[in-house]
Amino acid sequence: MPSYTLLLLLVAFERLMELNIARRNAAWSFARGGAEHDGGHYPVMVLLHTGLLAGCLAEVHYGGRPFIPAFGVPMLVLVLAAQVLRWWCVAALGPRWNTRVIVVPGLPLVDRGPYRLMRHPNYLAVVVEGAALPLVHGAWITALCFTLANARLLTVRLRCENAALGLAAT
């Protein structure tokens, strides 16, 4: 379990790095006339993602979930792949990447990197990580709860982001 706790701490550190980048990128966007779109779901998103990490730790610690290498190792590979995809998204969007939905008027949609292949690749990374991270150490209740709550949140988030991108494309 110490290795799993370290993994969760590394993911938490990565989230803090994301928030720092997002703050800097938000300032860049706002300085260019960017506007945030329908951010009412943002606190729920922060709570859900914080809850994912806390749930992983609590379920493994208090639920006595064992590490099963034949299952945990492939889940760890998925977690790492999700991280690679997430940071590919960050690199492709550059200063336009954010944890909030902020659109700078007049900028074209990004069509490089993973955005050549799909419209919202970062959300694929979130879905994969949200299921796989708890399952690295058998925290199936956390994986299930996060996946169900995240599906509802992503429905709201995708509506918001698609509407914002539609505004940016006109």
Describe this structure in words.
A two-stranded antiparallel sheet has the order 1-2. The protein has helices at residues 2-31, 42-63, 69-93, 121-135, 140-169; strands spanning 35-36, 102-103. The mean pLDDT is 94. It is elongated. It has 170 residues and is mainly α. It has a single domain, classed as Four Helix Bundle (Hemerythrin (Met), subunit A).
**What portion of residues belong to β-strands?**
under 5%
* Rg of Cα set: 17 Å
| Strand adjacency order, main sheet | 1-2
Q: Give the name of the CATH architecture.
A: Up-down Bundle
DSSP, total strands: 2
Query: Distance between the terminal alpha carbons, to the nearest Å?
Result: 51 Å
CATH class: Mainly Alpha
Per-chain topology:
Elements: H1 2-31, E1 35-36, H2 42-63, H3 69-93, E2 102-103, H4 121-135, H5 140-169
Antiparallel strand pairs: 1-2
Helix pairs in contact: 1-2, 2-5, 3-4, 4-5
What brief labels describe this structure?
170 residues; mainly alpha; Four Helix Bundle (Hemerythrin (Met), subunit A); two-stranded antiparallel sheet; 2% strand; elongated
Briefly, what is this?
With 170 residues, the protein is an all-alpha fold. The chain is built from five helices and two strands; from the N terminus they run H-E-H-H-E-H-H.
